[in-house]
């Protein structure tokens, strides 16, 4: 085991603090990554504060990891020392179920091993990217193309793939009208990606406060959901809605915006249950769906796509001592659009 510096939540809802953690030695198929940057995802806050249920403490959050390979195991074939790499929300899966074999490791039928707040094959809790290094099996690591800077690439490992996957699955592209609910860490990347895919993109946000940003990012239209006229004017006009917000929505109102056979896909996960009148989906043969991250192949595809189209996250780079302040700012929607930790400051 190797001791490394990290920032951890010692208990639920407790401020994160500098500490040390143990990383396993590099095994035959492992790579050691010197973490350069780690994004702050709203999921980190949900889990560090047990908003999604009981969690494992002390907890080192962070599943938007960008860094450089510093050591490889004897059996590693995909990477070598010096490679620019990323790690997202999972670091292992069973590798044997139908989903794993299909490249859908994120939906592993036996449960994927999450990058943090999970239990690894060694029976020990996993710890995430708010740290100086991490050891990961090569099969759960992706290559970051040279066209992407590591700091702007880090949020792509969660926010990027979380929005890319449903956009691809539901065929966003030319001739499709796609709406993104919320212009935050996930939403701003959803707009960029949907635009690059060739879709006509609408942002649905509570207010018009970020309208100029949304249009610069690639949106064709921008509407305030606080205005009841929005739901009247857009009724029955959209093919796909991707909701990135983690607050409960009036699902019936948003479903009313869809064309026949349209889909409302949720990638934000509220802590509270939501309700639905089923007539909202019966009328118009509409789909209410959810989507997680992507598999390893799709995550690499997403990174290559983003490099090709010049898509990186809009970031605010912070030092590790600012993590707790950043959490509060995320909760107050006071970030444009993703905090990224410079891990050299840990």
From TrEMBL:
One of its GO terms (molecular function) is zinc ion binding. Keywords: Metal-binding, Oxidoreductase, Zinc. It catalyses: a primary alcohol + NADP(+) = an aldehyde + NADPH + H(+). Its cofactor is Zn(2+). Residues 14-341 form the Enoyl reductase (ER) domain. It is an enzyme of class 1 (oxidoreductase). Signal peptide: none annotated. Belongs to the zinc-containing alcohol dehydrogenase family. This is alcohol dehydrogenase (NADP(+)). It comes from Streptomyces capillispiralis. The lineage of its organism: Bacteria, Bacillati, Actinomycetota, Actinomycetes, Kitasatosporales.
